[in-house]
Amino acid sequence: MIVEIEQLTEKDFIQGNLSYEYKFHVSIWNESTRVEISNKQGIDNISILPIIKSVLVWVNNNKEICTETAIEEGMIRLAEEWIKDEDSKVTNEKDCYLTAYEEKVFLPITQTDFYNSLRVQSIYFSVGEGITDINMYISCSPDYYAGHVIWYSLYTKENGKIECECNGLEG
Q: Pfam family example for this protein (predicted)?
């Protein structure tokens, strides 16, 4: 079941295989996103819910920032390197290549095409004394990176501001 972020409560946290793991799905960028929480410290889920919701709202409202962060990290150039292979060139179309999943991609990849391709696959919260790590994994459609995802670290500052950092590819 997909929950709207604003409607999310601790009752939506589904316990995973281990007693300290929880998961649920929310709608981010109009797509289903898996959210996982590792709460080894046993902190009450009600107390961490406001931080989790604020991060999810921030991600949902800041696709442009997430995209720009990836572009600054060179992810469009990297996507083009992964795609541009003579074996995957479509012979009857100019600058057209096929991904590993037979999806057509035209080079160069524009910032708009890149922006439109991004989907938040999952967000992982690790809870220590408060939320200590937040990792976000974004996939692309078409799949520029042959099954790999773009890995981000998200940081909540003491003033409540949230920042993201693109770490490159994962998986």
A: DUF2262
User: How many residues are listed for the chain in this entry?
Assistant: 171
The two tokens of residue 67 are 């995209």
pLDDT tens string 115-139: 999 999 999 999 987 777 999 999 9
- E strand map for 40-146: 96-98, 104-106, 118-128, 130-140
Query: CB neighbours (10 Å) of residue 65?
Result: 14
Any idea where the domains of the chain sit in the sequence?
A: 3-168
**Which token pair is 167?**
């770490």
104 phi, psi to nearest 5 deg: -80, 135
* pTM above threshold 0.70: yes
Angle at 150 between CA 144 and CA 151, to 5 degrees: 165
